[in-house]
Design brief:
heterodimer, A: 326 residues, Rossmann fold, 2 domains, five-stranded mixed β-sheet, 12 helices, 14 strands, B: 320 residues, alpha/beta, five-stranded parallel β-sheet, two-stranded antiparallel ribbon, 10 helices, globular
């Protein structure tokens, strides 16, 4: 299978869905070539359909919502997911609720694409992982692809649906390559987890960038005879609990990893649900790993302390597995 | 009275304003009977704004409304019985009882929803106008908002963006002088909303919002400009709120005498009625009033008879 980057996979999804839906538009700040260059070359292909906006996040998302309610599909690109704090009313009170408030009259084919998470030294207002805010809100879908194939397939599905979707793209993944099926109908359904690696001893649930960290750890752990199963939920609203429960039934141990601040994170929700529904399957306490409860610092010496890393995964998994199993 | 508009149009204005007032008074009464669960924000006093603006629109045009939205819905073409059923919290209401007064919407007639967040309608209306522009449908979108909403930052964002993109949008400020319980003279440094328009390179028009003829004519001009691709217009309709902010507001912030004087001198329905009667154009008065009364009575009966939503409805309509 051909290998392309996450950036190109997203670009393909946008291009194909714009060809498929003549009413589709994309709007955002510096939209050409778009945040992290995702739209390179598309402006010439679709004249008048990439709308350069002022720096007005509330108006961008609100206008995108109004356009989606009356037409669509619409992509609103918010350059850094931290900036979503500026347009929370439009997302939380308007887009998420308009279908319910109107008794099902509204359709909202709106995708808010936004780069998320750590990158290099951009500090407290450009580095956060805020997906839990949105996973908390009924009416929203929240996608967090970790591979090029998932990025393309999830985005295409989101654009063909009628619910507002927060589509979070981890910045360090844009340049990562992976296999992506040919053809314009590669879709990944929201709410379907992917078992990124099969294993026997510990289930590790990870999202976004943390999937690659977990897979790195898996290789190292295998050398010492520990086999971990890496489950990537791919969307954190809805969460595919069936796949997670099935894996925990097999391994009897669970570690949940998030790049977000651990307190009140999606990892906390998954851990609580497994503890509630799979207590009898577990051989030990559910463990969680996330970012410490601090804003992100800029300097590299502190920045590396503010995120979970592969070493943390190795340490916790080794604590979880009794010596006799090793 | 100048015969600037046909008799049927003017009598229609009078009837449509009366429909709104009759609906609001009936709803207020039904609320005292305990049949309406949530708060109501009465449109009484502002009827000429909704009727005058919506009379200048086509069926396919869009309206985004406010917390004080009953008048906008009725004027845009929503049915009184399904609106009353929504206030009653019934399955046959426009929103299956899930929206209530604050969220009545009828997408079928282009009414995109009342809104519980002040200043949230601007961008939704602009988005509908964007759809119209992109698709070349020729439709326009109207955003109704109050003077109290002008201090939201979203006003600035949307005025700029809508002018930049020449969206077919009418920004219609119903200036009733109050931001909830506070006079907007205490919350805004500017005395004119329409004058702000110049900063965004769009026309700003002052209109007496209780003169329906003036509201209608100003809207016709703004709609023509929007449909011609020339962009948005900001209309400031100076009007009056005859009741408190919402049901149960004791109005400690203004005197009873002030309200009585407004009802006497600034009533848009009495004003048009006087003009029509003076010109001998209101020969159907009693029949029209009886028809409106019958419509309200039927709406209440419809709402009373409609079932509450079944328990399973609580989890429906969250997602497609």
């Amino acid at each position: 299978m051909r290998e392309i980057t996450v950036r190109d996979a997203i670009r393909e999804a946008v291009m194909e869905e714009m060809q498929r839906s003549p009413g589709m538009i994309v709007m955002g700040e510096d939209i050409m070539p778009g945040a992290f260059g995702v739209h390179a070359g598309l402006g010439e292909m679709f004249p008048g359909r990439f709308l350069e906006t002022p720096i007005s996040e509330a108006a961008i998302v609100g206008t995108a919502l109004g356009a989606a309610m009356t037409g669509g599909p619409v992509i609103a690109e918010i350059m850094y997911s931290d900036f979503l704090a500026v347009c929370m009313d439009e997302i939380v009170n308007q887009a998420a609720k308009i279908r319910y408030m109107t008794g099902g009259q509204a359709r909202v084919p709106l995708v808010i694409r936004s780069p998320i998470g750590m990158t290099r030294g951009v500090a407290a207002q450009h580095s956060q992982s805020l997906e839990a805010w949105f996973a908390h809100i009924p009416g929203l879908r929240v996608a967090m692809p970790s591979t090029p194939a998932d990025a393309k397939g999830l985005l295409k599905t989101a654009l063909r649906g009628e619910d507002p979707v927060l589509f979070f793209e981890q910045k360090l993944l844009y340049g990562e390559k992976g296999p992506v099926p040919d053809g314009a109908d590669h879709l990944v359904q929201l709410g379907t987890a992917h078992v990124a690696r099969e294993g026997e001893d510990v289930t590790v649930v990870a999202t976004g960038l943390m999937v690659s960290k977990a897979l790195e750890a898996a290789v190292e752990l295998q050398r010492s005879g520990i086999s971990i199963e890496v489950v990537d939920p791919r969307t954190v609203s809805p969460i595919d609990f069936d796949t997670i429960y099935g894996s925990v039934d097999k391994t009897a141990r669970l570690l949940v990893i998030t790049e977000a601040t651990l307190a009140c994170s999606v990892a906390s929700e998954i851990a609580a649900s497994v503890a509630e529904h799979r207590f009898n399957s577990l051989d030990g306490p559910v463990r969680r790993l996330g970012s410490p409860f601090v804003p992100k610092p800029s300097t590299p010496t502190l920045e590396k302390l503010a995120y979970p890393g592969t070493d943390d995964i190795l340490r916790i998994v080794r604590e979880m597995v009794p010596r006799r199993t090793r | 009275m100048s015969n600037d508009l046909p008799k049927e149009t003017l009598v229609g204005f009078w009837r449509d304003m009366h429909r709104i007032r009759a609906f609001e008074r009936s709803a207020a009464y039904q609320s005292t009977l305990g049949k309406i669960y949530g708060a109501l924000h009465s449109y009484e006093g502002q009827e000429a704004c909704a009727v005058g603006v919506c009379a200048a629109l086509q069926a396919g045009d869009y309206v985004a409304s406010t917390h004080r939205g009953h008048g906008h819905s009725l004027a845009k073409g929503a049915r009184m019985d399904r609106m009353m059923a929504e206030l009653f919290g019934r399955e046959d209401g426009y929103c299956r009882g899930k929206g209530g007064s604050l969220h009545i919407a009828d997408f079928g007639c282009g009414m995109l929803g009342a809104n519980g967040i002040v200043g949230a309608g601007y961008a939704i209306a602009a988005g509908a106008a964007l759809t119209a522009k992109q698709s070349g449908s020729g439709r326009v979108a109207v955003c109704f908002f109050g003077d109290g909403a002008v201090t939201r930052g979203t006003f600035h964002e949307v005025m700029n963006m809508a002018s930049l993109w020449k969206l077919p949008l009418l920004m219609v400020c119903e200036n009733n002088g109050y931001a909830q319980y506070v006079s907007t003279t205490e919350t805004m440094v500017f005395r004119s909303v329409a004058d702000l328009a110049a900063n965004y390179a769009v026309p700003g028009v002052h209109v007496d919002g209780n003169d329906i003829r003036g509201v209608f004519q100003a809207t016709v001009a703004a709609v023509a400009r929007a449909r011609a691709g020339e962009g948005p217009t900001l209309l400031e309709l100076r009007t009056e709120r005859f009741n408190g902010h919402s049901s149960g507001d004791p109005q400690f912030y203004r005197s009873k005498a002030e309200v009585q004087e407004l009802r006497r001198s600034r009533d848009p329905i009495l004003r048009l009625e006087g003009e029509l009667a003076g010109a001998g154009l209101l020969d159907d008065r009693d029949a029209i009033l009886a028809a409106v009364e019958a419509e309200v009575t039927a709406a209440v009966a419809f709402a009373d008879a409609a079932p509450y939503p079944a328990a399973e409805a609580v989890t429906q309509d969250v997602y497609a």
